[in-house]
Amino acid sequence: MMIRIQLLRELDRCRGFLLPEPTLCTAVQMALAPRPTLGEVEAEIQECERKGLVSGATNELTGVRRWRITDLGKSVLQEIGG
User: Fold this and answer.
1) What whole-number distance in Å separates Cα of residue 31 and Cα of residue 9?
2) Is 81's pLDDT higher than 90?
3) Which helix (H) or strand (E) holds 50?
4) Residue 26 burial (CB < 10 Å; 0-12/13-18/19+)?
5) Which residues pair with 58 in a beta bridge?
6) 49: pLDDT strictly greater than 70
7) Contact call for residues 58 and 46 (beta carbons, < 8 A)
8) How do the domains of the chain map onto residue ranges?
9) Domain covering 2-79 assigned CATH 3.40.50.150 in the classification
10) In this predicted structure, what is the pLDDT of residue 44?
């Protein structure tokens, strides 16, 4: 759950702009102790996408996935006091 909260916080700070997945993963890992693995963060991103809390787009040239928080994600973050 802490990974999800931190993930939503990081994306909320971007104010609607897309954040590259490598940057997002690193920010989440650096903010939490003990530090989650890259796999744990990536799995949580996918779960958040499945639940509609985040949305992503893939750069067709680089293949880098970029993410933003959705309105539902903002609502969930407010509910948990994020």
Assistant:
1) 10
2) no
3) helix 38-50
4) middle
5) 65
6) yes
7) no
8) 2-79
9) no
10) 98
